[in-house]
Amino acid sequence: MTQARTDDTATPAKAPDHTYDVVVVGAGPVGENVADRARAAGLSAAIVESELVGGECSYWACMPSKALLGPVLAQADARGLPGLERMTGGPLDSGAVLARRDSFASDWKDDSQAEWVDSTGTVLHRGHGRLAGERRVTVTAEDGRVTTLAARHAVALCTGTSAALPDLPGMAGARPWTSREATSAEEVPGRLAVVGGGVVGAEMATAWQGLGAQVTLLVRGGGLLSGMEPFAGELVAESLRAAGADVRTGVSVTALSRDACGVTLTLDDGSTLQADEVLFATGRRPRTGDLGLDTVGLAPGDWLTVDDTLRVTGSDWLYAVGDCNHRALLTHQGKYQARIAGSVIAARAQGRPLDTGRWGADSATADHDAVPQVVFTDPEATSVGLTLAQAEEAGHRVRAVDQDLAGVAGAALHRDGYRGRARMVVDLDREILLGVTFVGPGVGELLQSATIAVAGEVPVARLWHAVPSYPTISEVWLRLLEAYRG
Protein backbone atom coordinates (compact mmCIF):
# COMPACT_ATOMS: atom_id res chain seq x y z
CA MET A 1 0.00 0.00 0.00
CA THR A 2 1.00 3.65 -0.32
CA GLN A 3 2.98 5.05 2.57
CA ALA A 4 1.80 8.02 4.61
CA ARG A 5 3.14 11.36 3.46
CA THR A 6 4.91 13.49 6.02
CA ASP A 7 5.72 16.58 3.98
CA ASP A 8 3.90 19.93 4.20
CA THR A 9 2.56 20.13 0.63
CA ALA A 10 -1.05 19.84 1.79
CA THR A 11 -1.02 22.42 4.61
CA PRO A 12 -4.63 23.49 5.29
CA ALA A 13 -5.38 27.08 4.42
CA LYS A 14 -7.63 27.52 7.41
CA ALA A 15 -6.13 27.87 10.87
CA PRO A 16 -7.32 25.20 13.30
CA ASP A 17 -10.24 25.97 15.59
CA HIS A 18 -8.73 23.85 18.38
CA THR A 19 -5.29 22.37 19.02
CA TYR A 20 -4.56 19.34 21.17
CA ASP A 21 -1.55 17.12 21.75
CA VAL A 22 -3.48 14.10 20.42
CA VAL A 23 -6.56 13.81 18.23
CA VAL A 24 -8.34 10.44 18.15
CA VAL A 25 -10.85 9.60 15.43
CA GLY A 26 -13.33 7.00 16.66
CA ALA A 27 -14.77 6.80 20.19
CA GLY A 28 -15.17 3.06 20.54
CA PRO A 29 -13.30 1.20 23.29
CA VAL A 30 -10.08 1.43 21.26
CA GLY A 31 -10.21 5.18 20.77
CA GLU A 32 -11.32 5.73 24.34
CA ASN A 33 -8.29 3.83 25.62
CA VAL A 34 -5.84 5.71 23.37
CA ALA A 35 -7.20 9.04 24.60
CA ASP A 36 -7.33 7.90 28.24
CA ARG A 37 -3.70 6.71 28.21
CA ALA A 38 -2.55 9.92 26.57
CA ARG A 39 -4.45 12.00 29.13
CA ALA A 40 -3.06 9.93 32.02
CA ALA A 41 0.44 10.77 30.78
CA GLY A 42 -0.32 14.48 30.86
CA LEU A 43 -1.20 15.16 27.21
CA SER A 44 -4.29 17.01 26.04
CA ALA A 45 -6.61 14.90 23.90
CA ALA A 46 -9.71 15.19 21.75
CA ILE A 47 -11.84 12.36 20.44
CA VAL A 48 -14.14 12.49 17.40
CA GLU A 49 -17.22 10.30 16.94
CA SER A 50 -19.90 10.31 14.23
CA GLU A 51 -22.16 7.69 15.83
CA LEU A 52 -22.56 6.49 19.42
CA VAL A 53 -19.74 6.98 21.90
CA GLY A 54 -18.74 3.46 22.90
CA GLY A 55 -18.58 2.11 19.37
CA GLU A 56 -19.51 -1.16 17.70
CA CYS A 57 -18.70 -3.38 20.69
CA SER A 58 -21.07 -1.60 23.05
CA TYR A 59 -24.13 -1.39 20.82
CA TRP A 60 -23.94 -3.88 17.93
CA ALA A 61 -21.33 -6.53 18.72
CA CYS A 62 -19.77 -7.86 21.93
CA MET A 63 -22.27 -6.67 24.53
CA PRO A 64 -25.63 -7.25 22.79
CA SER A 65 -24.53 -10.50 21.16
CA LYS A 66 -23.42 -12.00 24.47
CA ALA A 67 -26.61 -10.77 26.12
CA LEU A 68 -28.54 -12.73 23.49
CA LEU A 69 -26.35 -15.80 23.86
CA GLY A 70 -26.21 -15.90 27.66
CA PRO A 71 -29.71 -17.31 28.30
CA VAL A 72 -29.34 -19.76 25.39
CA LEU A 73 -26.11 -21.18 26.80
CA ALA A 74 -27.45 -21.20 30.35
CA GLN A 75 -30.49 -23.17 29.23
CA ALA A 76 -28.26 -25.67 27.42
CA ASP A 77 -26.22 -26.17 30.60
CA ALA A 78 -29.35 -26.53 32.72
CA ARG A 79 -30.83 -29.14 30.39
CA GLY A 80 -27.75 -31.24 31.05
CA LEU A 81 -28.37 -31.31 34.81
CA PRO A 82 -30.92 -33.69 36.34
CA GLY A 83 -33.56 -31.97 38.46
CA LEU A 84 -33.95 -28.94 36.22
CA GLU A 85 -36.09 -30.51 33.49
CA ARG A 86 -39.29 -28.74 34.54
CA MET A 87 -37.52 -25.38 34.57
CA THR A 88 -35.88 -25.78 31.16
CA GLY A 89 -38.34 -27.80 29.13
CA GLY A 90 -40.12 -24.85 27.53
CA PRO A 91 -38.90 -22.15 25.17
CA LEU A 92 -37.06 -19.10 26.37
CA ASP A 93 -39.02 -15.92 27.00
CA SER A 94 -37.68 -14.09 23.96
CA GLY A 95 -39.22 -10.79 25.05
CA ALA A 96 -37.34 -10.89 28.34
CA VAL A 97 -34.10 -11.86 26.58
CA LEU A 98 -34.43 -9.01 24.08
CA ALA A 99 -35.25 -6.54 26.86
CA ARG A 100 -32.13 -7.60 28.76
CA ARG A 101 -30.15 -7.23 25.53
CA ASP A 102 -31.49 -3.70 25.17
CA SER A 103 -30.33 -2.83 28.68
CA PHE A 104 -26.79 -4.03 27.95
CA ALA A 105 -26.80 -1.87 24.82
CA SER A 106 -27.97 1.06 26.99
CA ASP A 107 -31.05 1.25 24.76
CA TRP A 108 -28.68 2.59 22.11
CA LYS A 109 -28.06 5.79 24.04
CA ASP A 110 -24.52 6.89 24.81
CA ASP A 111 -25.03 9.36 27.68
CA SER A 112 -23.03 7.35 30.22
CA GLN A 113 -20.21 6.67 27.77
CA ALA A 114 -19.99 10.36 26.87
CA GLU A 115 -19.92 11.24 30.56
CA TRP A 116 -17.03 8.83 31.09
CA VAL A 117 -15.05 10.44 28.26
CA ASP A 118 -15.67 13.84 29.82
CA SER A 119 -14.53 12.55 33.22
CA THR A 120 -11.11 11.69 31.79
CA GLY A 121 -10.56 15.26 30.61
CA THR A 122 -10.81 14.27 26.94
CA VAL A 123 -12.77 16.69 24.76
CA LEU A 124 -15.51 15.01 22.68
CA HIS A 125 -16.29 16.38 19.21
CA ARG A 126 -19.39 14.89 17.61
CA GLY A 127 -19.35 14.60 13.84
CA HIS A 128 -17.57 12.88 11.00
CA GLY A 129 -13.80 13.14 11.30
CA ARG A 130 -11.52 13.28 8.25
CA LEU A 131 -7.83 13.90 7.85
CA ALA A 132 -7.09 17.22 6.18
CA GLY A 133 -3.36 17.02 5.73
CA GLU A 134 -0.62 16.40 8.23
CA ARG A 135 -1.78 16.55 11.86
CA ARG A 136 -5.14 18.05 10.84
CA VAL A 137 -8.64 16.63 11.29
CA THR A 138 -11.87 18.25 10.17
CA VAL A 139 -15.09 17.41 12.01
CA THR A 140 -18.36 17.81 10.10
CA ALA A 141 -21.33 17.98 12.46
CA GLU A 142 -24.87 16.89 11.58
CA ASP A 143 -25.82 20.49 10.85
CA GLY A 144 -22.96 20.81 8.35
CA ARG A 145 -20.75 22.95 10.57
CA VAL A 146 -17.06 22.13 10.08
CA THR A 147 -14.50 22.36 12.87
CA THR A 148 -10.77 21.93 12.27
CA LEU A 149 -8.63 20.24 14.90
CA ALA A 150 -4.83 20.25 14.98
CA ALA A 151 -2.63 17.70 16.73
CA ARG A 152 0.74 18.76 18.08
CA HIS A 153 2.03 15.20 18.27
CA ALA A 154 -0.28 12.52 16.90
CA VAL A 155 -3.53 11.60 15.21
CA ALA A 156 -4.85 8.11 16.00
CA LEU A 157 -7.35 6.48 13.64
CA CYS A 158 -9.55 4.06 15.59
CA THR A 159 -12.46 3.68 13.20
CA GLY A 160 -12.84 -0.11 13.21
CA THR A 161 -14.58 -2.10 10.52
CA SER A 162 -17.97 -2.58 8.92
CA ALA A 163 -19.66 -5.62 7.41
CA ALA A 164 -18.47 -6.62 3.95
CA LEU A 165 -21.38 -7.74 1.77
CA PRO A 166 -20.73 -9.72 -1.44
CA ASP A 167 -21.82 -8.19 -4.73
CA LEU A 168 -24.74 -10.48 -5.56
CA PRO A 169 -27.77 -9.91 -7.79
CA GLY A 170 -30.69 -8.67 -5.71
CA MET A 171 -28.59 -7.87 -2.64
CA ALA A 172 -29.85 -4.31 -2.15
CA GLY A 173 -33.50 -5.22 -2.57
CA ALA A 174 -33.19 -8.19 -0.20
CA ARG A 175 -32.31 -5.82 2.66
CA PRO A 176 -30.07 -8.37 4.40
CA TRP A 177 -29.09 -8.27 8.01
CA THR A 178 -25.48 -7.57 8.90
CA SER A 179 -24.08 -8.13 12.38
CA ARG A 180 -25.72 -4.87 13.44
CA GLU A 181 -29.26 -5.96 12.58
CA ALA A 182 -28.60 -9.46 13.94
CA THR A 183 -27.72 -8.12 17.39
CA SER A 184 -30.39 -5.38 17.53
CA ALA A 185 -33.43 -7.07 15.95
CA GLU A 186 -36.68 -6.31 17.79
CA GLU A 187 -38.28 -9.72 17.30
CA VAL A 188 -37.34 -13.32 16.59
CA PRO A 189 -37.67 -14.20 12.88
CA GLY A 190 -39.56 -17.37 12.04
CA ARG A 191 -36.94 -18.49 9.51
CA LEU A 192 -33.41 -17.10 9.48
CA ALA A 193 -30.79 -17.89 6.86
CA VAL A 194 -27.23 -17.22 8.04
CA VAL A 195 -24.57 -16.98 5.35
CA GLY A 196 -21.04 -17.50 6.66
CA GLY A 197 -19.47 -19.94 9.09
CA GLY A 198 -17.13 -17.65 10.98
CA VAL A 199 -17.52 -16.27 14.49
CA VAL A 200 -20.49 -13.99 13.77
CA GLY A 201 -22.30 -16.61 11.74
CA ALA A 202 -21.81 -19.36 14.33
CA GLU A 203 -22.72 -17.17 17.31
CA MET A 204 -25.81 -15.65 15.73
CA ALA A 205 -27.00 -19.05 14.47
CA THR A 206 -26.67 -20.29 18.07
CA ALA A 207 -28.48 -17.30 19.55
CA TRP A 208 -31.45 -17.13 17.20
CA GLN A 209 -31.95 -20.90 17.01
CA GLY A 210 -32.03 -20.90 20.81
CA LEU A 211 -34.56 -18.05 20.81
CA GLY A 212 -36.96 -19.93 18.56
CA ALA A 213 -35.98 -19.17 14.96
CA GLN A 214 -35.55 -21.95 12.42
CA VAL A 215 -31.97 -21.34 11.35
CA THR A 216 -30.32 -22.48 8.14
CA LEU A 217 -26.56 -21.91 8.20
CA LEU A 218 -24.90 -21.77 4.79
CA VAL A 219 -21.11 -22.18 4.73
CA ARG A 220 -19.07 -21.87 1.54
CA GLY A 221 -16.14 -23.88 2.89
CA GLY A 222 -15.95 -27.32 4.39
CA GLY A 223 -16.71 -26.36 7.97
CA LEU A 224 -17.28 -23.71 10.61
CA LEU A 225 -14.65 -21.55 12.35
CA SER A 226 -11.98 -22.16 9.74
CA GLY A 227 -9.38 -20.11 11.63
CA MET A 228 -9.39 -22.54 14.55
CA GLU A 229 -8.49 -26.20 14.92
CA PRO A 230 -10.82 -28.27 12.69
CA PHE A 231 -12.46 -30.05 15.63
CA ALA A 232 -13.78 -26.72 16.95
CA GLY A 233 -16.04 -26.16 13.96
CA GLU A 234 -17.02 -29.82 13.87
CA LEU A 235 -18.26 -29.82 17.47
CA VAL A 236 -20.13 -26.52 17.04
CA ALA A 237 -21.81 -27.77 13.85
CA GLU A 238 -22.88 -31.00 15.56
CA SER A 239 -24.40 -29.03 18.42
CA LEU A 240 -26.27 -26.67 16.10
CA ARG A 241 -27.74 -29.61 14.22
CA ALA A 242 -28.76 -31.26 17.48
CA ALA A 243 -30.55 -28.02 18.43
CA GLY A 244 -32.53 -28.14 15.18
CA ALA A 245 -30.51 -25.91 12.86
CA ASP A 246 -29.90 -26.90 9.25
CA VAL A 247 -26.12 -26.61 8.73
CA ARG A 248 -24.96 -26.88 5.13
CA THR A 249 -21.32 -26.74 4.03
CA GLY A 250 -19.81 -26.36 0.58
CA VAL A 251 -22.66 -24.15 -0.58
CA SER A 252 -22.77 -20.57 -1.86
CA VAL A 253 -25.51 -18.02 -2.47
CA THR A 254 -25.67 -16.73 -6.05
CA ALA A 255 -28.67 -14.37 -5.93
CA LEU A 256 -31.39 -13.00 -3.64
CA SER A 257 -34.84 -11.47 -3.89
CA ARG A 258 -37.40 -10.25 -1.39
CA ASP A 259 -41.18 -10.12 -1.64
CA ALA A 260 -44.08 -10.00 0.78
CA CYS A 261 -43.39 -13.59 1.87
CA GLY A 262 -39.76 -13.00 2.78
CA VAL A 263 -36.37 -13.59 1.16
CA THR A 264 -35.55 -16.14 -1.53
CA LEU A 265 -31.93 -17.25 -1.77
CA THR A 266 -30.71 -18.96 -4.92
CA LEU A 267 -27.89 -21.40 -4.21
CA ASP A 268 -25.04 -22.50 -6.45
CA ASP A 269 -26.63 -25.91 -7.10
CA GLY A 270 -29.70 -24.17 -8.55
CA SER A 271 -31.95 -24.80 -5.57
CA THR A 272 -33.66 -22.06 -3.56
CA LEU A 273 -34.15 -21.39 0.13
CA GLN A 274 -36.97 -19.37 1.69
CA ALA A 275 -36.39 -17.28 4.81
CA ASP A 276 -37.97 -14.36 6.63
CA GLU A 277 -34.58 -12.73 7.14
CA VAL A 278 -31.06 -13.38 5.90
CA LEU A 279 -27.88 -12.51 7.77
CA PHE A 280 -24.66 -12.12 5.81
CA ALA A 281 -21.67 -12.75 8.07
CA THR A 282 -19.09 -12.93 5.30
CA GLY A 283 -16.26 -10.76 6.53
CA ARG A 284 -15.30 -7.22 7.49
CA ARG A 285 -13.75 -4.25 5.74
CA PRO A 286 -11.92 -1.28 7.25
CA ARG A 287 -13.86 1.91 7.86
CA THR A 288 -11.23 4.01 6.10
CA GLY A 289 -13.06 4.94 2.90
CA ASP A 290 -14.08 8.45 3.98
CA LEU A 291 -11.25 9.41 6.32
CA GLY A 292 -9.32 11.80 4.08
CA LEU A 293 -6.46 9.33 3.71
CA ASP A 294 -5.71 10.74 0.27
CA THR A 295 -4.67 14.04 1.89
CA VAL A 296 -1.66 12.27 3.43
CA GLY A 297 -0.78 10.00 0.51
CA LEU A 298 -2.77 6.92 1.58
CA ALA A 299 -5.38 5.02 -0.39
CA PRO A 300 -8.96 5.42 0.87
CA GLY A 301 -10.58 2.15 1.88
CA ASP A 302 -7.30 0.32 2.58
CA TRP A 303 -6.30 -1.55 5.69
CA LEU A 304 -3.64 0.56 7.38
CA THR A 305 -0.21 -1.01 7.84
CA VAL A 306 1.50 -0.25 11.15
CA ASP A 307 4.62 -1.19 13.09
CA ASP A 308 4.58 -2.74 16.56
CA THR A 309 4.06 0.70 18.13
CA LEU A 310 0.90 1.08 15.99
CA ARG A 311 2.39 3.92 13.93
CA VAL A 312 1.39 3.93 10.26
CA THR A 313 4.17 2.92 7.91
CA GLY A 314 6.03 5.96 6.57
CA SER A 315 4.63 8.41 9.11
CA ASP A 316 6.00 9.92 12.31
CA TRP A 317 2.64 11.24 13.59
CA LEU A 318 -0.20 9.01 12.30
CA TYR A 319 -1.33 5.91 14.21
CA ALA A 320 -3.91 3.26 13.31
CA VAL A 321 -5.19 1.28 16.27
CA GLY A 322 -7.64 -1.60 16.48
CA ASP A 323 -9.46 -3.38 13.70
CA CYS A 324 -8.58 -0.90 10.94
CA ASN A 325 -4.94 -2.10 10.97
CA HIS A 326 -6.03 -5.73 10.41
CA ARG A 327 -3.65 -7.17 13.00
CA ALA A 328 -6.32 -8.82 15.16
CA LEU A 329 -10.00 -8.03 14.72
CA LEU A 330 -10.98 -8.43 18.37
CA THR A 331 -12.08 -5.82 20.90
CA HIS A 332 -9.71 -6.98 23.62
CA GLN A 333 -6.76 -6.91 21.20
CA GLY A 334 -7.76 -3.44 20.03
CA LYS A 335 -7.81 -2.22 23.63
CA TYR A 336 -4.43 -3.87 24.19
CA GLN A 337 -3.06 -2.01 21.17
CA ALA A 338 -4.68 1.20 22.40
CA ARG A 339 -2.97 1.05 25.77
CA ILE A 340 0.36 0.66 24.01
CA ALA A 341 -0.34 3.38 21.43
CA GLY A 342 -1.42 5.91 24.06
CA SER A 343 1.71 5.29 26.12
CA VAL A 344 3.97 5.36 23.05
CA ILE A 345 2.49 8.65 21.82
CA ALA A 346 3.06 10.20 25.24
CA ALA A 347 6.62 8.88 25.50
CA ARG A 348 7.54 10.20 22.09
CA ALA A 349 5.93 13.56 22.83
CA GLN A 350 7.90 13.83 26.06
CA GLY A 351 11.17 12.56 24.60
CA ARG A 352 11.26 9.41 26.70
CA PRO A 353 12.93 6.23 25.35
CA LEU A 354 10.71 3.34 24.22
CA ASP A 355 10.93 -0.31 25.16
CA THR A 356 10.05 -1.84 21.79
CA GLY A 357 11.96 -5.11 21.91
CA ARG A 358 10.21 -8.46 21.79
CA TRP A 359 7.60 -8.35 24.55
CA GLY A 360 8.70 -4.83 25.42
CA ALA A 361 6.30 -2.59 27.33
CA ASP A 362 5.85 -0.39 24.24
CA SER A 363 5.47 -3.15 21.64
CA ALA A 364 2.31 -4.95 20.48
CA THR A 365 4.09 -8.23 19.76
CA ALA A 366 1.28 -10.29 21.32
CA ASP A 367 -0.73 -9.55 18.20
CA HIS A 368 1.71 -11.82 16.41
CA ASP A 369 2.16 -14.58 18.97
CA ALA A 370 -0.57 -14.82 21.60
CA VAL A 371 -3.98 -13.67 20.38
CA PRO A 372 -6.80 -15.17 22.49
CA GLN A 373 -10.35 -15.62 21.21
CA VAL A 374 -13.59 -17.02 22.63
CA VAL A 375 -16.49 -17.98 20.38
CA PHE A 376 -19.63 -18.04 22.53
CA THR A 377 -21.38 -20.95 20.88
CA ASP A 378 -22.57 -24.19 22.47
CA PRO A 379 -19.98 -25.60 22.98
CA GLU A 380 -17.72 -22.61 23.47
CA ALA A 381 -14.69 -22.60 21.20
CA THR A 382 -11.55 -20.90 22.49
CA SER A 383 -7.98 -20.58 21.29
CA VAL A 384 -4.76 -18.68 21.75
CA GLY A 385 -1.63 -18.67 19.63
CA LEU A 386 -1.09 -21.00 16.68
CA THR A 387 -3.08 -23.98 15.49
CA LEU A 388 -1.18 -27.13 14.57
CA ALA A 389 -1.43 -26.31 10.87
CA GLN A 390 -0.26 -22.73 11.40
CA ALA A 391 2.69 -23.85 13.51
CA GLU A 392 3.79 -26.39 10.91
CA GLU A 393 3.39 -23.83 8.12
CA ALA A 394 5.60 -21.43 10.08
CA GLY A 395 8.34 -24.05 10.13
CA HIS A 396 8.21 -25.07 13.78
CA ARG A 397 8.95 -28.64 14.85
CA VAL A 398 5.84 -29.35 16.87
CA ARG A 399 3.68 -31.98 18.48
CA ALA A 400 -0.06 -31.71 19.08
CA VAL A 401 -1.36 -33.20 22.32
CA ASP A 402 -5.12 -33.84 22.49
CA GLN A 403 -7.45 -34.62 25.34
CA ASP A 404 -11.14 -35.57 25.45
CA LEU A 405 -12.69 -33.16 27.95
CA ALA A 406 -15.47 -35.60 28.77
CA GLY A 407 -12.95 -37.58 30.83
CA VAL A 408 -12.22 -34.64 33.14
CA ALA A 409 -14.18 -34.72 36.40
CA GLY A 410 -15.03 -31.03 36.36
CA ALA A 411 -16.47 -31.29 32.86
CA ALA A 412 -18.61 -34.30 33.75
CA LEU A 413 -19.96 -32.36 36.74
CA HIS A 414 -20.63 -29.29 34.61
CA ARG A 415 -23.13 -31.06 32.34
CA ASP A 416 -24.31 -34.63 31.73
CA GLY A 417 -23.25 -35.85 28.30
CA TYR A 418 -20.45 -33.27 28.20
CA ARG A 419 -18.67 -33.14 24.86
CA GLY A 420 -15.44 -31.24 24.34
CA ARG A 421 -11.81 -31.43 23.36
CA ALA A 422 -8.52 -29.76 24.20
CA ARG A 423 -5.28 -29.44 22.28
CA MET A 424 -1.92 -27.94 23.06
CA VAL A 425 0.69 -27.39 20.36
CA VAL A 426 4.19 -27.86 21.77
CA ASP A 427 7.37 -26.46 20.23
CA LEU A 428 9.65 -29.49 20.57
CA ASP A 429 12.84 -27.48 20.25
CA ARG A 430 12.04 -24.95 22.97
CA GLU A 431 9.63 -27.05 25.08
CA ILE A 432 7.04 -24.26 25.24
CA LEU A 433 3.46 -23.96 24.05
CA LEU A 434 2.79 -22.23 20.72
CA GLY A 435 -0.96 -22.62 20.88
CA VAL A 436 -3.83 -24.00 22.94
CA THR A 437 -7.44 -24.75 21.98
CA PHE A 438 -10.32 -25.66 24.28
CA VAL A 439 -13.77 -26.55 22.96
CA GLY A 440 -16.59 -27.37 25.35
CA PRO A 441 -19.29 -25.84 27.56
CA GLY A 442 -17.83 -23.35 30.04
CA VAL A 443 -14.26 -23.39 28.72
CA GLY A 444 -14.09 -19.66 28.03
CA GLU A 445 -12.87 -19.07 31.57
CA LEU A 446 -9.94 -21.46 30.96
CA LEU A 447 -8.45 -19.38 28.20
CA GLN A 448 -6.56 -16.85 30.31
CA SER A 449 -4.42 -19.61 31.80
CA ALA A 450 -3.53 -20.73 28.28
CA THR A 451 -2.84 -17.15 27.21
CA ILE A 452 -0.41 -16.69 30.08
CA ALA A 453 1.33 -19.96 29.19
CA VAL A 454 1.71 -18.95 25.53
CA ALA A 455 2.52 -15.26 26.00
CA GLY A 456 4.85 -15.99 28.89
CA GLU A 457 6.56 -18.85 27.02
CA VAL A 458 6.27 -20.93 30.19
CA PRO A 459 8.39 -24.11 29.90
CA VAL A 460 6.30 -27.28 29.81
CA ALA A 461 8.29 -28.64 32.75
CA ARG A 462 7.26 -25.64 34.83
CA LEU A 463 3.58 -26.03 33.93
CA TRP A 464 3.65 -29.27 35.94
CA HIS A 465 3.90 -27.14 39.06
CA ALA A 466 0.82 -25.03 38.23
CA VAL A 467 -1.53 -27.52 39.90
CA PRO A 468 -5.18 -27.31 38.76
CA SER A 469 -7.88 -27.47 41.42
CA TYR A 470 -10.01 -30.59 41.64
CA PRO A 471 -12.73 -31.06 40.47
CA THR A 472 -12.66 -28.26 37.88
CA ILE A 473 -12.53 -28.32 34.10
CA SER A 474 -9.06 -26.78 34.39
CA GLU A 475 -7.80 -30.22 35.41
CA VAL A 476 -7.54 -30.80 31.67
CA TRP A 477 -4.12 -29.12 31.99
CA LEU A 478 -2.89 -32.08 34.04
CA ARG A 479 -4.29 -34.54 31.52
CA LEU A 480 -2.60 -32.72 28.62
CA LEU A 481 0.75 -32.68 30.41
CA GLU A 482 0.45 -36.36 31.30
CA ALA A 483 -0.28 -37.21 27.68
CA TYR A 484 2.72 -35.17 26.55
CA ARG A 485 5.09 -36.86 29.00
CA GLY A 486 3.67 -40.27 28.01
TrEMBL record:
Its cofactor is FAD. It holds the Pfam family Pyr_redox_2. InterPro entries: Class-I_Pyr_Nuc-Dis_Oxidored, FAD/NAD-bd_sf, FAD/NAD-binding_dom, FAD/NAD-linked_Rdtase_dimer_sf, Pyr_nuc-diS_OxRdtase, Pyr_nucl-diS_OxRdtase_dimer. Binds 1 FAD per subunit. Its EC number is 1.8.1.4. Keywords: FAD, Flavoprotein, NAD, Nucleotide-binding, Oxidoreductase. Belongs to the class-I pyridine nucleotide-disulfide oxidoreductase family. This is Oxidoreductase.
